[in-house]
Amino acid sequence: MKICIISYDFWDYDKYIVEALCKRGIQSHHIKISAVTHSNFNERAVNALSKTFLNKNLKTEKRQKFVLDSLEKLGHQDQILVLNPDTFDLATLEKIKTYTNRLITYLYDNLERVPVEDKLHLFDKVFSFDGIDVRKHGFEKITNYIYLPHISQEKQNPQMDMFYITSYDSRRVSMVKLLAKKLMDLGLKFQIMVIGKKSWRHQLTNMFIKIPKNLFLIFSIKKIPHNDLPAYYKNSRVLLDLMREGQYGLSFRVFEAMSLEKKIITDNESIKTYDFYNPNNILILNKNITNLDQSFFESPYEKIPEEIYERYTLDSWVNKVFELDNKN
């Protein structure tokens, strides 16, 4: 069997799907769109002018050509999974479809944030992590997955009370400021990293303020290598997960917390509907963060039953998405 994954994969999560398939002896390939960038300053300048005056993004066209050229080399695939089809125009998706018997997609952005309804008719199956979209459009519900190896809390020695890393988002930054003050008042140690191009403003501001010793608040335009993240997670008792505007599905942070037996603080109320929800392990913030107190950090983590944990592993995910059985 041949399976191809096509995705932007900014945070390097999708490569684990390919690795899981290869371990089963399935011939798998990953066409990573984010690997295609402008090769020099001239290309960036020409693209900026093209977007401004012609409303035409040359980098997008370059990436779509890269995908089609890659498929031409790989040949026909039994299945192709496209993650977030908003990356492609309709004509490119139609060409991608000619290379496979089964074209599927997984939407880990909801349609409110990223509308792609005009393209979904091309797919044989549409998976979504968003409960509202699933109910409204008849998609098949699936969450993100546990990709990290399980490490029990007994084998870790965290020095921080809470850790959070996120891409830049104005809503999240507002929440972080409110949360940071609360954590400081409680005398807790925490580290927060906000990554993205817009972070430069905060970097400049931080040059002129004194940061308290127990506060580690970092704004950076430089991406943290994905392989470095587990070390940060393991060094914290609790992980934080804040939603984007209009987001209702569960982020990867929830499943990273599960794999490392970490408590999680979130503002996503939909987490209550999942079978692994345990108020001792998961704190759902209210709007003013008045329900955050020290007792949540001090009480022990309660292990998730194994049969529930297994439902969210990457092996279970690939079984469902690619209609595989355990014999593969």
Features:
single chain, 328 residues, alpha/beta, Rossmann fold
Q: What would a concise description of this structure say?
A:
The chain is α/β, with parallel strands linked by helices and 328 residues long. The protein is built from 12 helices and 12 strands. It has helices at 15-23, 41-54, 58-74, 90-97, 131-137, 170-185, 200-206, 229-234, 252-259, 294-298, 306-310, 314-321, and strands spanning 2-7, 27-32, 77-83, 100-107, 125-128, 140-141, 160-167, 190-195, 215-220, 236-241, 263-266, 282-284.
- Total strand segments: 12
Mean pLDDT: 86
Under the CATH scheme, which architecture of the largest domain would be assigned?
Answer: 3-Layer(aba) Sandwich
Q: What is the total number of structural domains?
A: 2
Query: Could you spell the SSE succession in H and E letters?
Result: EHEHHEHEEHEEHEHEHEHEEHHH
Helix content: 25-40%
How many distinct helices? Answer: 12
Instruction: Classify the beta-strand content into a percent band.
Output: 15-25%
Widest β-sheet, arrangement of strands: 2-1-3-4-5-6
| Main beta-sheet annotation | 6 strands, parallel
Structural class designation: alpha/beta
Distance between the termini: 10 Å
* CATH topology tier name of the largest domain: Rossmann fold
**Quick one: overall form?**
globular
**CATH C-level name of the largest domain:** Alpha Beta
- Roughly how many Å is the radius of gyration? 21 Å
Write out the CATH superfamily name of the largest domain: Glycogen Phosphorylase B
Q: Name the poorly predicted regions.
A: 198-215
